[in-house]
Design goal:
Blueprint: E1 2-5, H1 7-14, H2 21-32, E2 37-41, H3 42-56, H4 58-71, E3 73-75, H5 79-87, H6 93-104, E4 109-111, E5 125-126, H7 128-137
Parallel strand pairs: 1-2, 1-4, 2-3, 4-5
Helix pairs in contact: 1-2, 1-3, 2-7, 3-4, 5-6
Amino acid sequence: MKVMVDLNVLLDVAQNRLPHYHASEEVVHRVRRGEFAAVLPGHALTTLHYILEKYSGTALANQTLDGLLADFAIHPVDKANFQRARQLPLSDFEDAVVAVTAEATGSDFIVTRNVADFVGSSVPAITPIDFLEHLAAVGAD
């Protein structure tokens, strides 16, 4: 199984955002244990680093980035991806880029807290909690 992990899930973990932290952290933990493959769109790393550095300091931003680079596949976003994203019926362009990247990488799900933002994506969106329940149901637990 392969999943695209949305930026909000990573921010939940890095910034200890309650009440979302626990489920999001469990998803990231399972990626690190190698239970399934996980992908990030390249642009998410720059955005994540910027936000963490601004609000939590350079050390945490760098540490978080290094951990993600070690455990997640990173898919580059190119002109064709951006053009395809412009054609999707999603209201948020960044979400459309995530959806296109999920499609391009053959991801089974987009793990996000904003499932409604991905209506119209060819890859189904699922919350961290629902994804963990799915893993339990298919015996990946």
